[in-house]
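User
Here is a favour to ask of a fellow structure person. I am asking you to supply a protein in sequence and structure-token form. Please set it down just below, with no commentary around it:

Assistant
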Amino acid sequence: MMRFSITITRKRALMVIFAAVSIMIIDSTIVKYIVFSTQEFPTLTNVSIFISLALLFIGVSVVILGFIAGKESGSELKGALGIKNSYFMIFMIQISLIAILTIIMLSIVVSQNYIILSLFAAIFVSHISALFFLLLLVLSLVVWIMVRMNKLVLLYSVSFSLLALTIIISLFYATNVLMNQASLIKPYPIQTSLHDLPRADLAIHFGPMLDIISILSFISVWIVSAFLLSTYVRKIGKARYWTIIALPLVYILFPFEIYFLNMFQPLISSSPVSFALINSIIFGATKQIGGLFFSFAFLAAAALLEKYVIHKYLLISAVGMAILFGSIDINSLLYATYPPFGLVTISFMAIGSYLVFNGISNSAVLVARDKVLRKEFYRNAMSQLDLLRVIGVSQMEKDLIDNYKSLEKRIKQPEITGRRFEKDNVREALHGLVDDLDKEDVREILHDVLDDVYSKSKSNTDIEGKDDFH
């Protein structure tokens, strides 16, 4: 498969992040604006907006694939779980989504309609592929937690697990609603479409459920992000730091105050339309703004490690965080409007989840393999590097255990157990691992491994000696 590569830099990563976030904000909020305003754009205007957003999505996807190809082609890393051919997988997924969008655009331009099956195809491809990469990421985090328990990794694993649950529920919810839509979607006023949502009763059950899961997921990542960025307390002061850090959380949680305080009930009762319109304009982009904030922790870490290869994977993780958290939004798509606003937003899900998985898992592998990089972490007390330090050491310990098990298997083989296997041979076999260890507790693990291997090899030698004596 031919690849083209684009070198990812901090400037290019920021451009892609802001482009993707802007596309998703427009695509996911335009329907909310139309439903609560008295003005509806002409059909031709809506179609032009949709096609523009779809073409921008294709352009952003091509650039991101170039970022990934550049890193994959220059590295033999396979990630924490050793996933092979991941670039080919995400390449085919994105090609499929681009093909679906192209078919819908051509159908709208040529026939002035589109079939509902195209929405089903896009929903299933984006949701299932995003779920696949998210589960791989969660499994990687669980592996690191089993090796070394850490609160930061635990909170990330909780958040990504909740995101995976959100994707499953959203897929089920969207499927049940869209099954009741017409098979052929023709030009129709969007405001009318919004008042005729089939199976509106499902929103009573699925709406609050998705909101609660989203709140828990966002809070988990916000806590980690606040901790990783805590270095800036010394630069700007504690009061100013927490004020700045709290603003994204307040913005994200404010739309959900109806479940807890409902302080605006009098205003809602007196001016429901005005309140809904203002609320949709100001707080209609909570998911996208949340994703943008969560990417800052990885951007800050990348700024500290510009001379290392891991810098590129941290930028990839930052782009993925911004896209992933901003793309899991199916509200607009449920109405199957003409044109299908909300479709471009969910089409970002697959590439977002892949970038987060690829960036975080490969960052851990790089830290585990690079002794110089780990020493840089221990010399640098910046909180932005704490997550990398933890997952890198956990991955190193996992590699150590895997190497020990592999060595143990070789020792137990008949052709090996028949030979004299001294302690010096074991030390030589693990020499590279000894050199890579920096922390005292990891050294103790290695010493335990050496003692265990030596005792077993010594037992085999004693048995051999006894057999020779007899």
User: Anything to note?
Assistant: Residues 222 and 294 are 7 Å apart (CA to CA).
